[in-house]
Amino acid sequence: MDTVTSEAVDMSSLVAIESPGQGSWLKVAALMGCKPEMAVFRKFRTLNVLRLLEMQSELADQEQEYRNFHLLDTEVECSITKSYAKDWDALNASQGKRGSLQRDAWRKIKERLEAYSKRKYLL
Hints:
By secondary structure, this protein is mainly alpha-helical. The chain is about 65% helix and about 0% strand. It has six helices and no strands. It has helices spanning about 10-15, 25-35, 45-75, 80-85, 90-95, 95-120. The relative contact order is 0.11.
């Protein structure tokens, strides 16, 4: 197997047809490393779109769950719990079961939404 020792690459040694497992990937990587304009990578657009659709569905489910917890907090008699529906600071500082359900649901949404937003720009 040939090795690349410098940025200068002997093109004739890179174009030789080889059977798989004979260092062909190393030669392709060496070529692409030395000649970035020749680098070609698949984007897997269909798979990326499929993953975005999956994440979108998960976000929609999480949104509904969050809305349910939010609605529950607006309908209770306890003024502290009721404040979770309109006061982010109170919600974030909540220790009770109801507050932590809404808070935890929101944290999950934020994580998923951040990943979703980053991913959709890869298309």
